[in-house]
Amino acid sequence: MAGRSYSERPGKLVYGLLAAVVLGGMFPLWWSFLIASHDSAVLSRNPFPLVPGGNFLQNAATVIDTVPFWRATMNSIIVSTVCSASVVFFATLAGYAFAKLRFRGRGPLLVFVIATMAVPTQLGVVPLYQVMAKLGWTGELLAVIVPALVTAFGVFWMTQYLSQAIPDELIEAARIDGCSMFRTFWHVALPAARPAAAMLGLFTFVATWTNFFWPFIVLGPQDPTLPVALQQLQAAHFVDYSLVLAGALLATIPLLILFVFAGRQLVSGIMQGAVKQ
Question: Helices 56-66 and 241-274, interaxial angle, to 10°?
Answer without folding.
Answer: 90
